[in-house]
Amino acid sequence: MTVNEKKKPILGAIADDFTGASDLASFLLKGGLKVVQINGVPSQDIELADDVDAIVVALKSRTCAINQAISDSTASLAWLQQQGCQKFYFKYCSTFDSTSEGNIGPVTQALLAKLESEQTIFCPALPVNGRTVYQGHLFVFEQLLSDSPLRNHPLTPMLDSNLIRLLQPQLAEENAQRLQLMNLASLHKRPAYQKVESAYWVVDCVNDNDLEKIAQLFATNPDYPLLTGGSGLGEYMAREYVKAGWLQQSNTSHKITKNDGKTLILAGSCSQATRKQIDVARTQVPTLALDVDAIATGQLDPATVLGWINMQHSEAVVLYTSAEPEKVLAAQAQFGKEQVSEKIEQCLTQIAKLARENNILNIVVAGGETSGAIVSGLNLTAFTVGQSICPGVPVMQSHHADGLIVALKSGNFGDENFFLTALETIQ
Fold first, then answer.
1. Is residue 385 within 8 Å of residue 33, measured between CB atoms?
2. Is residue 384 part of a domain?
3. pLDDT of res. 247
4. What pLDDT, on the 0 to 100 scale, is given for residue 252?
5. Residue 1 belongs to some domain of the structure
6. SS3 sequence of the chain
7. Cα-flanking dihedrals φ and ψ of residue 246, to 5°?
8. Dihedral through CA 68, CA 74, CA 76, CA 82, nearest 10?
9. Whether residue 222 is found in the same domain as residue 334
């Protein structure tokens, strides 16, 4: 591969949800790449700046039907190839968020087929946020994934921590048989930049030194055009591209033009982390709980909520549907799991639309599915990626004329002060 003289992007990434896309984009930016995020399957009329190093396509494919996930992902891949991308990445959650019926395996197989490749890696680890893989098992800090709060995820309950066991039923039989574990000893005894035998590798990773070695083995390896995993590897892939002389390091983030006025925080995630962040935020910011039963039955009026927002003499407000797992399960049992999620997403999206129409141009969203629904509902096609609020959550500015600023947070990301830190960063 030669130096990127024509200013074509090096990396094309496909993320299975919107928070995951911005998560990856933030680490690519940290590694030295200039990044643009495209929302939804890209259309042919999207224009890119001539200095973009990486494109991240955000899809809402984590929990959709398998055929739809494959269709959207392969269409995005074709567009990225048209833009001149030479390396590719399939981004999914650092807590996997994919059951035995999930889409990670089928999408990976479909992308590899389009690239005429038979090998890849699975590396969800994000050590800076406590997501590590040891002996093929995914951990959230000191807990196995299956012992963590993710076992109660309302859409993708993670009841197993063994990545090979999770992936096997998602793959065609011949590919399931090619799954192999690259443990830490095997990883570190391999010389950097040397050929790696063909397989579907589940790679152990417990710290940033491991991420660096994984990137040395695979990021510029011509036999591995597609890598898959979480966002953590992105920073080290970017560093390898710079080291290889494929592009010039940007060093500075894209500039974001700040917007005056209120910031609206919308929390649709029921994660333990988000619920704690709401508790901390309510000590300093007006908060309003949106009743899930009222949303599910159509009794909650978004216009009334907007009236409440406008009455608050504060620089920010928090609206949330987040609830304890028991309450979520009760609502799902009464109204149906998919129906409850869809109604919540529709309600929060309508509130975001009304807020934007009333010149509220700073919006923070907690929850992957919620973020995808709101970004799609607001017809935001592309973002410039700016500085991070916390690891994996950057501030982004829409390419739309109003310059809407958004931050999309995966439910489990951020410390307890996240919302307050977001306000300081955005305002």
1. no
2. yes
3. 83
4. 54
5. no
6. CCCCCCCCCCEEEEECCHHHHHHHHHHHHHCCCCEEEEECCCCCCCCCCCCCCEEEEECCCCCCCHHHHHHHHHHHHHHHHHCCCCEEEEECCCCCCCCCCCCHHHHHHHHHHHCCCCCEEEECCEHHHCEEEECCEEEECCEEHHHCHHHHCCCCCCCCCEHHHHHHHHCCHHHHCCEEEECHHHHHHCCCCCCCCCCEEEECECCHHHHHHHHHHHCCCCCCCEEEECCHHHHHHHHHHHHCCCCCCCCCCCCCCCCCCCEEEEECCCCHHHHHHHHHHCCCCCEEECCHHHHHCCCCCHHHHHHHHHHCCCCEEEEECCCCHHHHHHHHHHHCHHHHHHHHHHHHHHHHHHHHHCCCCEEEEECHHHHHHHHHHCCCCEEEEEEEEECCEEEEEECCCCCCEEEEECCCCCCCCHHHHHHHHHC
7. -80, -20
8. -160
9. no
Residues 131 and 22 in one domain: yes
| Same domain? 104 vs 214 | yes
Using CA atoms, how far apart are residues 230 and 361, in angstroms rounded to an integer? 29
Same domain for 135 and 49? yes
Same domain (yes/no): 214, 289: no
Q: In this predicted structure, what is the pLDDT of residue 418?
A: 98
Calculate Rg over the CA atoms of the chain: 21
In 10 A of CB 65, how many CB atoms?
A: 10
Number of domains in the chain: 2
CATH of the domain at 398: 3.40.980.20
What is the domain extent for residue 33?
11-243
Q: Are 419 and 320 in contact (CB under 8 A)?
A: no
- Residue 253 lies inside a defined structural domain of this protein: no
Using 70 as the pLDDT threshold, list the residues of the chain that sit under it.
Answer: 1-6, 248-254
Sort strands 131-134 and 137-140 into parallel, antiparallel or unpaired.
antiparallel
Residues 6+ apart with CB under 8 A from 198: 118, 119, 178, 223
pTM above 0.85, yes or no: yes
Q: Tokens for 425, please give them.
A: 């960063």
Q: What's the CA gap between 58 and 21, in Å, rounded?
A: 5
334 part of a folded domain: yes
